[in-house]
TrEMBL record:
An annotated GO cellular component: cytoplasm
Domain of life: Eukaryota
Protein name: SET domain-containing protein
Keywords: Methyltransferase, S-adenosyl-L-methionine, Transferase
BP GO terms, sorted: methylation
Ranges where the SET domain occurs: 254-537
Species for this entry: Cherax quadricarinatus (Australian red claw crayfish)
Amino acid sequence: MDRCGRPGESSSEEDLELYLTKLCSDVTLYSPKEGFFNHYMEQIDAQVSQDFLDKFGQLKSDEDRLLKTWGVKPIHTLKVQSFYRQKSREVSECRREEGNKAFQEKKNGQALVLYSQAVVRAPHDEGKSLALALANRSAVLYHMDEYHLCLTDIDLAIQAGYPPNLMYKVLDRRGQCQLQLGQYNSALLAFTAAAHALATSGLDKKKLESWKKDLSIKIHSCQGKTDAGDPAPSKTTSAILFQGSSKVLPNASSALTLNTSKDEGRYLVARGPIPAGQVLIAERPYSAVLMDDKCGSHCIHCYHRLVAPVPCPWCSGVAFCSPRCRDLALATYHRWECKFLDLLKGSGVSLNCYLALRVITQHGLPYFKKLQHRLNQPAIMPSASCRQNPNDYLSFYHLVALEESRSPRDFFQRSLLATFLLKVLQRANFFGKWDDEAGPPDKALTEDEVLVGRLILRHLQLIQFNAHELSGMAFASGKINFKKTKSVFLGLAVYPTISYCNHSCFPAVTRYFEGDKMVIVSLRPLQAGDVVAENYGPIFTHHPRQERQRKLLSRYWFRCNCEACRGDWPVYNNMVNKRVIQCHTCKSPLPQPAHNQSHVTCKECGNSTNIVQADKTLHQANKLYVAACQHMDEGHREEAISSFTSFVDIVSGLVVPPFRELHLSMQALRLLIASRGTIHTPGIPAPDASSTKQ
Ligand SMILES: C[S@@+](CC[C@H](N)C(=O)[O-])C[C@H]1O[C@@H](n2cnc3c(N)ncnc32)[C@H](O)[C@@H]1O
């Protein structure tokens, strides 16, 4: 090992594993390169003795760890104060002017961006800049045929105090939108209100007459017409669970159940046969956070891409896709986090830490005080007699945290982070009004603060192993090409039911996203008792066994013993084009048949398999493979999925893996299924789920 603990050439595999584990653990807490938290951590590290750490390692509860850390004087040198992107009337007005210029030049896309910046930066309690920015944006939205968004902006502009003398304009625009949407009764009301508003317009006589005439024609055109049904745009299509919902795991298919073992913990298995391509779990996150660099482009509440951002009334750092998302966020987590977002960002703490905090802020203090007596209940193990509620905090709280395997240093680092996040909550008045004058920063913690602090510490441990990436898909080139897709990382989330999926380097399932909902789909056929395994990153076709095992051990703290690891299966590039037929009874590999031999006897179970028939079926299946590849090349997603899943189902029943075409098909399925999710490439329409070959 060198002075920084990095293993040298002569280091043992064990040293390397220890080093990698520490590195992986650190990045689940903070960035080693950015922000002030790493310097702070180094300073504290230098001030605590080995003896302190040894004693720290003997502490038995998160509460003890939190209190011990709070007692370390130097931790209170860190100054926590609100730091966030503030509103600016000057910036807002400047962007609005630029937006006006772009709009006059018919550059609608550019105008929309500039007006949106004007909206997000405008103060809510001072002047008219917000109302004017919203009203101007509504005009460009109308020209872009975004009638629903235009109507929202008009409502928001009026709520923000749009000037009465200009009111006729937005009321007229509201009527125009409603006319386009076939809402004739509402349009009639809007045009009538616009006509009344002319009285306070201050327009000269000529303009007034012209407006009156125009509005009267519009009113007349709406009279006597019946409203068309409202074709409100729907954001999601819903995935349907295979064989309906499970009674014990409501977000999972009834074809799944939960098993447990000493070495593998809890894990999902199939209860009976499941073909490839079936939806097995569809789950909204228990909690989720958006990545920093997506805050300007995605709704922080529902993760949809923003077209016309609805602002936060207090900060300019985040935005929402709708007033509904805004109100839900403001009523819960954002009211506590809003004024500390830039502090958290500047600290360099990881997204895991935001998530640990979010679980607290989304519920608020009274919720935790009320449930604290339940925290000592044993871990939930859904069974016939005990149904899991994935929205219950305890389903989150009891996710695996591997506290028994943690080093004292790891516990101390996480405790330091918990105290930092606790200080943020204190300053955000989460525990009641914070008063700098009333006491020093190291003032003894109250009962409520201890409760929340120890929960944050627990979150920091369990999120390490249970957080999922929340992502969308984008086509890398400017057109639909399933082979050139890339995953767009949007944030981090916890899905309690999906967290019960253990890992395999030869995974049984893949995933896609509908907004923030994760949908898990079978990639290959499963039989009763088969593990419904996800892949945590290293897949056998791309990464050799040693690399996979190192990654999994250092990141997830287990030694993988999946079929691919046990059999040391080759990566794609080393896979020979050989197929081994399986026994039709026990699935064991059959010996190669002699020339002209039609039946082969299994050495394991003694049953005979018709090898000629198996060859014939494989030959037929190959046609499906060719058709699937063609569908994929032509951009027919659902047809390609259907052909690939049929191929995988047939081949999995005949050939022993690894088998090159099987794995190529599964890789293609992963891409195709992922692209069912949110498509983030601007200008490219999502491929239609019901597309048919033209
Ligand atoms: C998301 S959790 C999976 C559910 C977990 N087994 C439980 O009991 O809640 C991830 C953790 O499960 C364990 N795990 C996952 N896959 C495993 C496997 N194939 N073998 C052994 N342990 C595994 C590891 O401890 C890992 O950190």
